[in-house]
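Q: My labmate handed me this sequence with no annotations at all. I'd like to see what the chain might look like in three dimensions before we decide whether it's worth expressing. Could you predict it?
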Amino acid sequence: MFTVNPANGDPSVIAIESSWGLAVVGGEVTPDRFAVDKVTLELRGVRVGNKSVAYRYDSTWGRVVAVPVAEGDAQRPCLREDQVQELARMGRQLERELGRAQDVEWAMDAEGRFFLVQTRPETVWSNRPRAPLADPGEPVLSRILRNIRIPMRIAD
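A: Here is what I predict for the chain of 156 residues:
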């Protein structure tokens, strides 16, 4: 989970990726992707990935192994909307408490409880200098009036 959109730096979006099993990294599966409004926690976008493999711990072998995912589950979202919102709420709280955008690793157990595995500052977009949208000394009303477009009609 990123508390800033990792594709374009939009700070109003929390981006969450999920897959069956233990890991999303590695490129072997295309994870589900959720974009969540940071203020309202509403879903702005959902893209369900093809998750044909899940990494699971095999106690017989004492290691993590790749296990095929049932065909019906491979194209089904891993998380419900309320779970996505719960994760986003956790991400938003982490960002507030730690004072900057976060890159968060999380896990969910069989009962649906979330665990934070690791969090670290997001470093790509957070470190870029930001130019002000307008001159800070300019009155707000002047900016609004300058940007209003009134259609002109030429008289015959």
